[in-house]
Amino acid sequence: MKLACVNWAGAEVKDGIVGGLQARNVTSIAATFKSMGFNCVRFPWSVWMVQTNPQVPDDLQESLLAANPQLMGLRTLEVLDAVIDACASEELLIFLDNHVSDGTWCCSDFDENGLWYNSRWPTSDWLEAHVNLAARYARLPYVVGTELRNEVRASAPSGAPRWGGGGPNDWHAAATEAGNAILSVNPSLLIAVGGINYGKDLSGVYRLPVKLDKPNKLVYTAHSYSWSYPWLADSYQALHGQLGKDWGFIVEEHRPFTAPVWVSEFGTFSDCHKDSCANWWPDFLQYLLQGDFDWAVWHGDGTWSRDDLHPFHGPTNYGVLAADWQTPAASGELLAALQTVQAPWSGPGVNSSAQRCNAHCADSWDSGWSNGRANAAACAPCLRNRPCRGNLSVEEWCSNGWAKVSCSWTCCRAGLLEPQTCEKSHCQSRYSDNYDPSWPSHLVNTSACLICLQNEQCRGFRSRSSWCTSPWAATHCQLTCCTAGFVSPSRKPASLFLQ
Hints:
20 helices; alpha/beta; TIM Barrel; 8 strands; single chain; eight-stranded parallel barrel
């Protein structure tokens, strides 16, 4: 199966309590994530929370647990038990994630949480916390894995991590030791090992892969955000090349380093109002789609948990859920984009239409944008950006909009267009649209022809079939008419094609 996960944060920060329990019943939140198409949840936690297991203070019971009175008076690990049990009852898989040592917001080079140890929580505590959680959830088969450490990076004053080479900052050695210790108490778990440099660099795996006592339990994890590569050119090819060098190469089959890669963090603003939504975000989703990578979006939370950076219970504007922890944030814009990459297209037992999409569909849109994007490189951003779609839903855009003609491959691979519909893209090899009506909207060619096809006044009040077989349409809008089924791609008479 493919992991399509959501991060449910909160247990890693000040109070050690997952977010949203003040707003809705825990089972209802889990059911909402399941209904949105996610099949697993990643839970960040801190070494402090596990090792001290504090009780929720009386003065914070209401603000943290108001919608779950059955959890009031419990300790943090008991609350986490209840949340994990709720997810399991919805058949959601669970990945644990050691996010930080202290109960604090992540991440910077100066928060003293970049390595797996600091002056307050040595390596021995980190290992003990992992082993304790692994043993605690051995009873529950839905807890399938644990991520050893989130975004390993330089940490003042202890220095930078290294991949191999020995010494206290050797992340390869520390991850191997932790993975084997966990498997000794819970051999069913997957061991997820992240890269260095904020989790984005796994290039060391090429020469020195991790070798666990149980080799089939290893998974590598990668993180990526719009700020991860500020120097990178605005093109899919550039991002593809960079990610391939950093971690994409690991999934190449039959190599000494070959292993699964799970992208356990990536994300953007709920309403896609930043520049990342015009370039990095859709390009990254396209990379996930084409590689069929497992992933976990950051994050599901509709409001902030208590930390030193964000307003407590303020809307995150960076989550799948709105502040009510029930409805999709920003009219579901972020969720709709994620749903285009949820379904698997490869692997044992997967009956995917991807190969038929590849065989029968084509993207042919020349956007005219200043960055020169065309075809799939233009269609992918539009699919995942509401203003580009003319405020249509992704379903409307792919089934009724001009994308059905010009972005059929992108829509098909996202599961929004059937391959048999795409087969009409053979029209593109025979016909084109050449229509400039000089409208104030400046729509031309296929965009203008689609308007006419759907507007009887533009068609001179003729039926669509009659309009498409007219000499005028045969000159100016033959591609649109062919794709709509009124002209045959094999140049047979339209009456035969429509039978």
